[in-house]
Amino acid sequence: MDIFIQQMVNGLTIGSLYALVALGYTMVYGVMRLINFAHGDLVAMSAFVGLTVYTQIFGENITSLVAVITVFVFTAAIVALVGVLLERLAYRPLRTAPRLSAVVSALGAGLVIQNSVMLIWGPNMKIFPSNIFPSTIWSFGGVVITFTQVMILGLSSILMVGLYFFINRTKIGTAIRAVAIDQDAAKLMGINVNRIIMIIFVIGSALGAVAGLFIGVYYRGVTFDMGWMYGLNAFVAAIMGGIGNIPGAMLGGLMLGLFNAMITGYISSQWAETFTFVLLIVILVFRPTGILGEKVAEKV
Amino acid sequence: MMNKTSMIALVLLLISGVYPFFVDSAWLAIGTTFLVFSCVAFSQDIILGRAGVFHMGHAMFFGLGAYTTAIMNVQFGLPILASWAPAVLIPMFVAFVLAGPIIHLRGDYLLVATIGFNIIFIQVLENDVFGLTGGPNGIFGIDVVRLFGFEFASQTYMYYMAFILLGITLFIMRTLDRSKFGRAMFYINKDEIAAQSMGVSVRYYKLYAFIIGAGIAGAAGSMFSVQYSAVSPEAFDVTQSIMFFTIVLVGGSASLPGVLIGTFIMFVLPEVFREFETARYLVFGLAMILTMILRPRGIWPVRFGNIPNFLKKDVK
After folding, report:
1. Thinking of the domain A2-134+143-286, which architecture would CATH place it in?
2. Over the stretch A140-150, which tens digit does the pLDDT of each residue have?
3. Which residues of A touch B105 (CB under 8 A)?
4. Which of A6, A165, A204, B59 could cross-link A24 (Cys pair, CB 3.0–4.6 Å)?
5. Is the Cβ pair A105, B107 closer than 8 Å?
6. pTM over 0.95
């Protein structure tokens, strides 16, 4: 039973990271019908940017709330800027092109980001300092929860709830939903579609940046090519929940994290990805548009 | 009278026919692999470019063919010739079984599901199921083709075998284009809902394209394993699938010259620029973005699909 609860805690931690990344995929897909294959590499990049910001500004050995907040805000800002540039340079020229052209452009953009990271920070694994968060540990019986896990769960819940209210209760959120349903109609209603898409990329990239930083803090070792696997898992999570559907991405992320942790804990980590995709395919066979259904208007 | 296209085709045919006599062994091997990859790219084009099925796991079928030949030859001691039919039929069967339940999914879902198949395939190979696949190292020491006591062992033979394979592939593509199947696929690709309401069974033809594509990729895989006399999982992973996917879209989907150009750009050019090891893929990514922005339908897009000339005249 202890193992089960421990794996559940670990699974929820990883799951909320998947959910943060999945939100970036699902929002871009909802508005542009584009699988943003470069998103995973943005996540990997943010881990490296965060590490550099941390060591350059604060040195190796400082644990303070101010430092952590600065690193998160700074990294999120830089990565959001890269995300906006990405949309501007690689996706906007292709908005009227056949859909698969934009997919190739996204794959190319992913290559560019991944290899830029390799050229700037080198091909070797970089290690995050262990003292970014205090190493406090709580144990309940045999179950251990670290301070980092609490931070990850806490902050990502806050971000997700905040995003939910932002999308559903604010004027910009309403505009985002309108653009997702019908771009042309939204334009006629006076919504600046380009600006909405820019906001989508800012939010998505910033959430991805937070996830990337947490990946660095939690696993400590980061490599330039880790984005592909995190990105793919997160995208699978977005599809499981129903693409274009924001609560769906959250649900899918948490579910996939839990499922992964259970497979790793009880069966074998060697087959983790196989089980992930078997689960995805089973879900798609029985619910072709994900668990909560997609929120994407199909044009006939 | 010969038109410009068939002139270019003839010149290319002549050049590729005498190519082995003018290059060293490294470039001969690249030439052979180019021909093999072209076959795979054409089979990807049947699925992606013609039937319009978003398929990003094609390296799996390529790998299935390669591993069928390798396992039959090395683990069971059968001759290469005996493995040719299974190397085509097994990928076709697997395509039928895997794609059957998911072929009705919409584009992007299918894309991720096929990536999933490829990842599962790689994990099966790496975890050495049944002790047949050799794990992460793969299988070494695959035999050459033997027929009536004659060995087709030299790289030049390999080149011409790949050449013949490409010829067969092109013949199949041509036959497809001029058949009911080809027309149905083009229709589905242009407008799935219209095709369905005209009584074209979308599911049947998509599955048909998938199975044919898998078979051709399997044959190419068998050739590939004989050429390098070894197979290993990383030659068939998702990165490779993405390459085949990109080849078709960068070259121009459903366009024969387009797919050849695509293969050349995505496979031969990186070999030429091997010295610029580190910056190579950065430039590559930039080139992918630029190509798509400047030529969204590919470098050599197909015109009008295959509308016969007498129809086009009326439109004017």
Report:
1. Orthogonal Bundle (1.10)
2. 877 888 888 99
3. 284, 288
4. A204
5. no
6. no
